[in-house]
Amino acid sequence: MNRSLHAIVSAALIASLAAISAAESANGTVTYQSKSGPIVVNVKHAYLVKGPDVVSGKTIRRVVISVADVAEAIRKCERMMCSDGGIGEGMTVDLDAGPMLNYWFVANDQRVQFSGVTKPDSLKLTADAADHVAGKWDLDAHTGGGPVIHIEFDAPLVKEIKGKM
Question: Considering the entire predicted model, what is its pTM?
Answer without folding.
Answer: 0.84
